[in-house]
Write a structure and sequence with these properties.
single chain, 5-stranded antiparallel sheet, Copper amine oxidase N-terminal domain-containing protein, Mao_N_sf, signal, Cu_amine_oxidase-like_N
């Protein structure tokens, strides 16, 4: 059973600080398996920084069979489905035929084969822990038991569908071997035949997927939940609940089906439809219900609805507010709202409005809105309660515009970086989503209003997060004015700041008054150094590896000298002129002017701007400061940053230009193709590892984090000497071990994995642009054939009867397809989808079950006319309409049927008897056709 050890444990074992010679430690190293000491004729030893252990002793202690071939000097160990083979003196070995690399070759010490401990863990996959102080190696084996605890179910009475069913269970204690859980409902009449094999073959539309997690699992099923036969869960039907624990294929765990739970039956009556899209706005400052404006969207069908009742519930009580509570609530504690001809209803509550507990609505209390659709006839259909709105609180304060306190020309870059804007925040930031800064040409500023501001395109404004404080910010280099022109010297501007209202609360945007007019001027170096580039030219692992080139300032007569700053890439976004001027001399490299463009190689003791020595494995960007010769640091000019660089030294080169192409609607890795440019030098690279990182975590993902990613959470790609495009698989996970989720934003990184021979340090690429999976396609429900029979009517014909799809929503029509019986077992949905119109019989959906007659004028799936004496099986293809559903469904095949010949009426002519042996031949031929 393969269970990979974490890289953190391996790193601890292989980097122990020991003398670089083969020696026995002062205290002999001991080995324990599941806390029992392992006796070995040869104890572990240290060789360099590696722990070497006796292979035979450990393998036999883990119940593996070990065989020695003296002729080839090869040792082979077998345990279950794991076969390990290595040769004395070789730095490679094989695990199940796959080549792995050893830190140092296997050797013989006093007649015992000694191998690095890492190789043992990779070979048999058990957990290993190293205690350097106690000189003790612990090997902990794992259980393969994936069983879950007893399942409990509770049944409500509100909806009459899956939402009334809540399933609780305790997950497996061995979740490392679990891929996911699947909650399945089986009709009580079919439960006796429901087995693990049947459960493993249930389509994903007919079970509820539950991701593995720590702690008890509680899941409420959905409105469209179906039983394993594909029928929607409904009232009056008795079901049993199972939980399928799906084993992790990567660790070879088998799946496990729970025992059946007690039977459950839904008893809810049908209900009217619920309203949706609940919205609440704080529209006034009365401190009571008059401040609350509520709106909601009416359901598509309102003929069976009498009116609506709006309930304001304290958020702390919202989780227990259900249909029964709404039906019992006093009419004085809700607001009755009549139906409307408009799809959206909006109303403002009154000063006397109360919450469902009877308290007047007031400031400072968190509330949640619910709306009840009341039935015109509760004997026929029950009322229906909506989901709750987002929580909201009346605070009694108003949204005011920010006010600009100053705008200054703080630098001489000749662009928006020269503008520093200070402004006071709004009086109540809870009603603000963020702030937006606009630079407006002075001659356009008098006509610049909030209405005009709302029309400005991106690139011509700058958004700033609120932080509870008044703010001073410097604008970005790329910012354009509201006319779409880059901010520049010599133009007169005014600045505005807008408070962008919290959209969830429905607050409007508010624009500040304009700043004083300001024009950018240049009293310093007219232009900074440009074209800053950096190269890795050596392998010292310090500043001597960095060679920096840049073009001199275009007005070097104002420059005294240049300063080269090396900044960690993660800090480059905040490195500006002020920070550069404040750096001590030990954190930059001084370069004198020469009248030409410059090239400089840094010194071994060069430091970055954090004061740390420049070293391999860290990503840097380089800036050049042109220092003014006028004695005023504010008159100096800072260049743009170079591209990122990471010193390789003993590291391999990184891949580059990583991109993700999304194509498909599977909602998993099958939709993702990762492309990247191979490393500029692939020497020392074993292979590439593609890693997917959630976009909100990508800024913290570096080489150290990449080296710790589990082998089941990346996709390995062999190098082939060319740039690579790799289509990912269905089971692809992110670096945290979570399956990809549609709508979640990710970045892709590529780790160049060192082979450990010529180079030993991995290298990480930059991340791709953000990408997200599309929502999975929806599959239309499946029809089922109930009977096929010969129905000649003047010529040979077959009548096909079938049950319509369980839910015809998303269905366009049915296609009845004839397939020769000999080919039917291999007939697939893809083949059915590819058939032209001439090779099936279409049937319109009617809301009822279907009946269709096919005869010899019909073509089968091979394009041949149906023929008497040939055995056929029939399929029904449910064809999606491409709107509500996008994937077709294919029924199971019907029983075989031979199309019968129609015998014409003849006058008084006896059929000559056939020889007995001829009858038998025909019988056999017919049997074979069937």
């Amino acid at each position: 059973m393969k269970k990979w050890i974490s890289t953190a444990v391996i790193a601890a074992l292989i980097t122990a600080s020991v003398p670089p010679v083969v020696s026995h430690a002062a205290t002999a190293i001991q080995i324990y398996i599941d806390n029992e000491k392992l006796s070995a004729s040869q104890p572990p030893i240290m060789k360099g920084a590696r722990v070497l252990v006796p292979l035979r002793s450990i393998f036999e202690g883990l119940n593996a069979k070990v065989v020695w071939n003296n002729k080839s000097k090869t040792v082979t160990a077998t345990k279950g489905d794991q076969t390990v083979s290595l040769k004395i003196g070789s730095k490679t070995a094989t695990i199940n035929g796959n080549t792995v690399y050893l830190d140092i070759p296997a050797s013989v010490v006093k007649g015992n084969t000694m191998v690095p401990i890492r190789f043992v863990t990779e070979a048999l996959g058990e957990e290993v822990y190293w205690n350097s102080q106690a000189k003790r190696v612990d090997i902990v084996t794992k259980s393969d038991d994936l069983s879950t605890s007893t399942i409990t179910t509770s049944v409500g009475t509100q909806y009459g569908d899956g939402r009334d069913i809540k399933v609780d269970f305790t997950p497996s204690q061995n979740e490392g071997g679990v891929y996911e859980y699947r909650v399945m409902l089986v009709k009580d009449t079919s439960a006796g035949n429901f087995t693990l094999n049947a459960a493993m073959n249930i389509t994903s539309a007919n079970y509820t997927q539950v991701s593995k997690r720590n702690g008890n699992v509680s899941v409420t099923l959905g409105e469209n939940t179906r039983d394993v036969s594909g029928e929607k869960i409904r009232s009056g039907v008795t079901y049993k609940v199972y939980v399928l624990t799906v084993g992790n294929d990567a660790a070879d765990y088998a799946s496990l089906l729970s025992s059946a739970r007690n039977s459950i039956t839904l008893t809810a009556k049908p209900a009217v439809q619920a309203v949706s899209e609940l919205r609440v706005k704080d529209v006034a400052n009365n401190g009571d219900g008059r401040d609350l404006q509520i709106s909601f969207k009416q359901p598509g069908t309102t003929s069976d609805i009498n009116s609506y009742r709006a309930f304001i519930v304290k958020t702390k009580d919202a989780s227990s507010f259900d249909l029964n509570a709404a039906n019992r609530a006093s009419s004085s504690y809700s607001t009755v709202i009549g139906k409307s001809g408009s799809s959206v209803i909006t109303t403002t509550l009154s000063s006397s409005s109360r919450d469902v507990s009877g308290d007047l609505i007031k400031n400072g209390t968190a509330y949640t809105l619910f709306v009840l659709s009341t039935s015109t006839n509760t004997n026929d259909k029950q009322n229906r309660l909506s989901s709750g709105s987002s929580s909201f609180t009346l605070d009694g304060s108003t949204l005011t515009a920010p006010s600009i306190t100053s705008v200054t020309d703080r630098s001489d870059n000749g662009d928006a970086r020269d503008l520093q804007v200070s402004f006071n925040k709004t009086g109540d930031e809870s009603k603000v989503g963020f702030y937006r800064v606009f630079v407006v040409r002075n001659n356009n500023s008098s006509a610049f209003t909030m209405s005009e501001a709302n029309k400005v395109s991106s690139g011509s404004y700058y958004d700033i997060s609120k932080n509870g404080k008044n703010q001073t910010i410097t604008l970005p280099q790329s910012l354009k004015d509201t006319s779409g022109i880059t901010v520049r010297e010599g133009e007169s501007y005014r600045v505005f700041v807008a408070a962008m209202g919290n959209q969830q609360g429905g607050y409007e945007n508010l624009l500040s008054s304009s700043s004083n007019a300001i024009s950018l001027s240049n009293n310093s170096v007219s232009k900074p150094a440009t074209s800053v580039a950096v190269s890795d030219i050596q392998d010292y692992g310090d500043g001597r590896d960095l060679q920096v080139t840049f073009n001199k300032s275009s007005e070097e007569s104002r420059v005294d000298h240049y300063r080269v700053f090396v900044v960690k890439s993660g800090n480059a976004g905040s490195f500006d002129l002020s920070r550069a001027n404040g750096m001590s001399s030990d954190r930059y490299t001084r370069v004198n002017t020469t009248g030409g463009n410059l090239k400089v190689t840094l010194a071994s003791g060069a430091k970055d701007t954090d004061g740390s020595a420049i070293r391999s494995g860290v990503s840097y960007r380089v800036f050049v400061l042109a220092v003014s010769n006028r004695g005023d640091s504010k008159l100096s000019a800072l260049s743009s940053a170079s591209s990122a660089i990471q010193l390789s030294s003993s590291s391999v080169r990184p891949a580059s230009n990583v991109s993700a192409n999304i194509k498909g609607n599977n909602g998993d890795g099958r939709d993702v193709t990762i492309s990247f440019q191979k490393a500029s030098d692939e020497t020392g690279i074993s292979r590439y590892l593609i890693m997917l990182v959630r976009a909100d975590e990508a800024s913290r993902f570096d080489l150290s984090a990449a080296n710790r990613v589990s082998s089941s959470n990346y996709t390995a790609v062999n190098k082939n000497g060319s740039n690579i495009s790799k289509l990912l698989g269905e089971g692809t996970k992110d670096i945290n071990g979570n399956k990809l989720v549609a709508g979640t934003s990710y970045k892709a990184f590529v780790l160049s994995l060192a082979d450990g021979s010529t180079r030993s340090v991995n290298a990480l690429s930059d991340g791709s642009s953000n990408f997200a999976l599309s929502q999975p396609s929806v599959q239309v429900d499946q029809a089922n054939i109930t009977k096929v029979e010969n129905k000649p009517n003047g010529n040979p014909a077959v009548q096909v009867n079938f049950n319509k799809a369980g839910d015809e929503k998303g269905l366009s029509f049915y296609a009845v397809i004839a397939v020769k019986a000999a080919s039917a077992s291999q007939f697939t949905l893809d083949q059915a989808n590819a058939l032209p119109r001439s090779q099936y019989t279409s049937v319109n959906k009617t809301g009822g079950n279907g009946v269709v007659t096919v005869d010899t004028s019909t073509l089968d799936s091979d394009g041949s006319s149906l023929k008497p004496g040939v055995s056929y099986r029939f399929f029904v293809l449910s064809v999606a309409d491409g709107d509500k559903a996008t994937i077709n469904s294919l029924s199971r095949a019907s029983d075989s049927i031979v199309l019968e010949e129609v015998t014409p009426m003849k006058e008084e002519k006896k059929e000559e008897p056939k020889e007995p042996n001829e009858d038998k031949k025909e019988d056999k031929k017919e049997d074979k056709g069937n």
